[in-house]
Structure formats: C-alpha cells, structure tokens
Amino acid sequence: MEFITNSTAETEDIGAALGKILTAGTVIAYEGDLGAGKTAFTRGLARGLGCTEQVTSPTYTIVNEYLSGRLPLFHFDMYRLHSSDDLWDIGWEDYLERGGVCAVEWSENVADALENPITVRVEKLDADSRRITIEGGIDLAAISL
Q1: In order along the chain (145 residues), what is the average pLDDT of each group of 10 residues?
Q2: What Cα–Cα distance (Å) separates residue 131 from each residue in 8, 73, 109?
Q3: What's the Rg (C-alpha) of the chain?
Q4: CB of 109 closer than 8 Å to CB of 77
C-alpha cells in the first residue's frame, strides 16, 4: 500500500493508523535515507499504540522504549551495527519475547535476523512530501485514515 504525505503531521497520521492495528510481536523494518521521516512515522506509530512518551530518535542509544501504550514500542536504530550478530548481542531476542512492537531503523544492516517484518519504506520526494510504502505481514485494508 502506498501513501503520499505532504507534511510531517500527515506522515505521523499514517504511522498512527498502522499503530492502531498492530499486534504483539510485530516487527517493522524501516527503509529510507537519513532525514526521510522514519522517526516522524514512529511518532505516529507510538500515538496509534497509545504511547504518551515523547518519541525521539534512538541514534545514540540504539533502542528507545515506550511502555505507556496498549503494547510496548521498542524503537531501534541499527545504523551503528555492522551485522545481525551485533543485534543478538544487544538482547534482540529479549525484546521479541516482551510482546511489543519492534520498529527498526536501518533494518538493512540486520535484515537476516528479521523474520517476516512489515516493511515501511519512507522516501523523501521534496522538502515536505514523502512516499510511504507499507508491505507484508498484515491486512493493509485495515489501515484507515
């Protein structure tokens, strides 16, 4: 399913719509360049899950945890990891077992460790516009804006 957004708020709204239908154990593999809008999408995802914490990029922490929603959200940034071996070293399996949603930026760095993820591709079209493509793992017809 493909969406075109024309503002950060619209990007967040698509994330929120997805967050409302996710189930425990879902893994989201983000694809997109630096500054494409992955964290903005995650802010919406958190809102859709009912999380009330402020969502920020996990660039320097590797993972941010948001526990106030109907499901916990674990927001990973794999930019600094070199392989899926590094992912296992930070306790990936523990996060999968906690029954939340794992949203993974720079997922291509650990792609071989992600089983059947929902792929969210965020492409920057211009300063404000994004193309968001969501594939796999869920009934995309259930996403309503």
Answers
A1: 95 95 95 90 97 87 93 90 78 91 91 90 94 84 64
A2: 12, 23, 22
A3: 14
A4: no
Structure tokens at 91: 């306790």
Q: Is residue 58 within 8 Å of 105, Cβ to Cβ?
A: yes
What whole-number distance in Å separates Cα of residue 133 and Cα of residue 32?
Answer: 10
The count of structural domains within the chain is 1
Range of the domain at 120: 2-142
What count of other Cβ atoms lies within 10 Å of the Cβ of residue 31? 19
The contacts of residue 25 (CB under 8 Å, 6+ apart) are 96, 99, 100
CATH number of the domain residue 123 falls in: 3.40.50.300
Residues in the chain: 145
Q: What share of the chain is helix, strand, coil (3-state, %, to 5)?
A: 30, 25, 45
